[in-house]
Design goal:
This protein is an alpha/beta fold. It has six helices and twelve strands. The chain has one domain: 3-Layer(aba) Sandwich (Rossmann fold), CATH 3.40.50.880. The protein is globular, with a radius of gyration of 17 Å.
Length: 239
């Protein structure tokens, strides 16, 4: 789908290939608003020091690690099966989904990761991470293997190429009334969500944030903004 999504009365500005202005689209509200995310769970902070791995094969690994640390978790770079065995949950960053898929194979991580996910390990996939965790990729390469950890059919680069990247304010189900500012870079989109998938936010009526049990996915990059609510939500409500 070419370009950033538009709604009546809005004119988003592009980030463009060199960065630039922010797209200020009106928040879309979905579902009942349950108020601010509660500070519960593990210890004194949202993360309580639990060990959360960040798949360190490609993408904004340091930015996710910083967001997790600021949310109270202990981030761990995951590059090997031994690294994976040491963590309680995993974040799969953005990047290029076919490359991540190949690196999972060459690193020996794919099978142990599939086993951990099948056993219920919590996971949070952002952008390409959402594609890797999805059950089906419509425009993936023939040799691209997804992990099928969440019942989603996704399409890569659905909002356009790098120059079509944009930012938008989202209303996230379960958060307070403040919009979540989301950064979309060559973002995928959900074409179909299974019956057991909870859609938490949309853009132009299309899901961009979803959860099913212990798996949370976003089409955007929450690690690239100072707002830590989504990482806190993962630690409090999903892990």
């Amino acid at each position: 789908m070419p370009g950033a999504p538009r709604r009546p009365g809005t004119t988003p500005e592009r980030i463009g290939a060199r960065g630039g202005a922010v797209a200020r689209t009106a928040p879309e509200r979905i579902g009942p608003q349950r108020g601010a995310v509660a500070r519960t769970a593990h210890g004194s902070g949202p993360g309580g020091g639990i060990k959360v791995g960040v798949l360190a094969l490609q993408g904004a690994v340091a930015a996710h690690a910083r967001a997790l640390s600021e949310s109270g978790a202990t981030p761990v770079d995951v590059r090997t099966p031994d690294d994976l065995a040491s963590v309680d949950a995993l974040v799969i960053p953005g990047g290029e989904s076919t490359t991540i898929s190949m690196l999972l194979e060459s690193s020996g991580l794919r099978e142990p990761l599939a086993e951990r996910l099948g056993a219920g390990m919590p996971a949070f996939g952002t952008c390409a991470g959402m594609i890797v965790l999805a059950s089906d990729v419509l425009d993936g390469r023939p040799d691209q293997r997804s992990l099928a950890a969440i019942d989603l059919v996704v399409r890569r680069n659905a909002f356009g190429r790098q120059r079509d990247s944009f930012e938008a304010d989202l209303a996230v189900d379960g958060f307070d009334d403040r919009p979540f500012h989301a950064v979309f870079i060559r973002a995928p989109v959900v074409e179909r969500a299974g019956a057991g998938v909870e859609v938490l936010a949309t853009v132009a009526g299309r899901p961009v944030l979803a959860r099913s049990g212990p798996v949370l996915v976003s089409a955007f990059h929450p690690e690239l903004t100072p707002d830590r609510r989504l990482h806190q939500y993962f630690l409090e409500e999903v892990v």
